[in-house]
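Q: Given only this backbone (469 positions), what sequence would you predict?
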């Protein structure tokens, strides 16, 4: 069996925790572990991210221990960013030389999967190593199956925000619970729904997709539940409806927020009882299917506004996936662009093309309001327009508003990312502490005045709870 590569990166040389952990692993490895120990002394500490980068490039670990001390804790964000920059996805176990819960929360917030506090015992350390490595390997195998064996190669990207979501798909597929997929238009919600269906035990049965927003309001119930003969003037024969069409398989309801309230009531009853009655029929039918729903709006906010039933929201949102917009996974743009070039050159029978650096720069700096779907359309257009072996910058046709300098585009992207993080974080924080600003500020490590400025800036909504001092 392949040895487990373990990196022990010691950023607290003043204490003995790193050396103690090294000795424990060495004494219990039984030829199962390949350990690389790297200690950073006080003089090298400012260059710790650079040392971590070089270590990861020279050694491909399956798991990493990061030993943090007082001098290295301020560098947490920078150190964890190294793993993302090096495109290394592996379990990270943080060693914290203090029982202070704030220190533990800090390392988990920045990306650690687990934590250890000295003193160490083999029964506490070694099972964690095996568990995390085994889970990581199972995830990798599942993603490979998802992307290769099933032919769903549209899952292109290696950004953490993207991978963290698609890694949920194999586990969600194994259960039969309702899934709610969130994300802006063009982020790939239907691809995710099809992947869940294809990995599920229902794969041999139908996958039926419907865009609820494309059905006229007065026809929604008829489309979903069908009708009996004579249900209305033109109903000469019966219609099965989409629920019966998907019986045994999966029904994907895209833009589920577009359902009128009357249809929401009937859908809720079906989810509760697994039975329904077609329009104009006195007979009740049963159906065994899975519902996957998707929305490009905040459904929770829609429930607070009274546009979507809260009980239906909870029924649909048993497990959820939130696909990040392309502007928050900008590093995936080159991978996606090359994938689409290959796809479209093959489709039109043209020789393979390469994207020049100038053309790639235009793609990377654009903010992509239409997300992956917009990028796909732009690349397809560039393949059609380009007669040479390379796609030049002038063949990348973007909206006129996208003509910004690289510096301005970077600043704009950064501002968007920061604003989205602040809005989400402040909303969750206030919800956790039921609108109590003092407790929320203490948790966030900010003074009340700073937090109030952020609240006024982002106007986070609090369902049924006023803000309190």
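A: Predicted residues:
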């Amino acid at each position: 069996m392949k040895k487990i590569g373990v990196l022990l990166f010691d950023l607290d040389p003043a204490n003995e925790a790193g050396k103690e952990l090294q000795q424990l692993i060495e004494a219990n490895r039984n030829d199962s572990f390949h350990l690389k120990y790297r200690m950073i002394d006080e003089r090298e500490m400012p260059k710790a991210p650079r040392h971590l980068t070089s270590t990861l490039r020279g050694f491909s670990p399956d798991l990493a221990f990061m030993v943090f001390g007082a001098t290295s804790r301020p560098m947490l964000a920078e150190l964890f960013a190294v793993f993302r920059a090096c495109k290394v996805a592996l379990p990270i176990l943080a060693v914290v030389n203090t029982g202070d819960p704030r220190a533990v929360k800090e390392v988990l917030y920045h990306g650690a999967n687990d934590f250890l506090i000295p003193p160490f015992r083999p029964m506490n350390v070694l099972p964690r190593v095996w568990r995390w490595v085994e889970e990581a390997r199972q995830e990798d195998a599942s993603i490979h199956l998802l992307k290769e064996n099933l032919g769903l190669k549209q899952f292109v990207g290696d950004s953490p925000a993207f991978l963290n979501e698609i890694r949920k798909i194999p586990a969600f597929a194994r259960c039969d619970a309702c899934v709610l997929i969130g994300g802006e238009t063009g982020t790939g919600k239907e691809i995710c729904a099809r992947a869940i269906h294809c990995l599920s035990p229902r794969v041999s049965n139908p996958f039926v997709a419907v865009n609820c927003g494309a059905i006229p309001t007065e026809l929604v119930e008829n489309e979903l539940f069908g009708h009996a003969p004579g249900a209305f003037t033109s109903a000469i024969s019966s219609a099965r409806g989409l629920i019966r069409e998907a019986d045994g398989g999966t029904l994907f309801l895209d833009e589920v927020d577009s359902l009128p309230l009357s249809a929401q009531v009937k859908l809720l009853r079906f989810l509760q009882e697994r039975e329904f009655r077609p329009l104009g029929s006195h007979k009740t039918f049963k159906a065994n299917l899975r519902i996957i729903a998707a929305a490009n709006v905040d459904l929770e906010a829609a429930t607070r506004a009274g546009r979507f039933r809260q009980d239906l929201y909870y029924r649909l949102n048993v497990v959820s996936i939130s696909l990040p917009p392309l502007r928050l996974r900008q590093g995936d743009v080159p991978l996606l662009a090359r994938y689409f070039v290959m796809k479209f050159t093959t489709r039109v029978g043209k020789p393979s093309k390469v994207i020049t650096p100038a053309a790639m720069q235009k793609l990377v700096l654009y903010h992509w309001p239409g997300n992956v779907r917009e990028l796909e359309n732009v690349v397809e257009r560039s393949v059609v327009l380009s007669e040479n072996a390379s796609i030049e910058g002038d063949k990348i046709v973007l909206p006129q508003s996208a003509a910004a300098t690289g510096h301005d585009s970077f600043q704009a992207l950064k501002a968007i990312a920061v604003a989205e993080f602040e809005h989400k974080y402040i909303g969750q924080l206030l919800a956790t502490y039921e609108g109590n600003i003092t407790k929320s500020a203490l948790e966030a490590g900010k003074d009340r005045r700073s937090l109030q400025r952020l609240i006024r800036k982002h106007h986070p909504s609090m369902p049924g709870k006023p803000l309190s001092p």
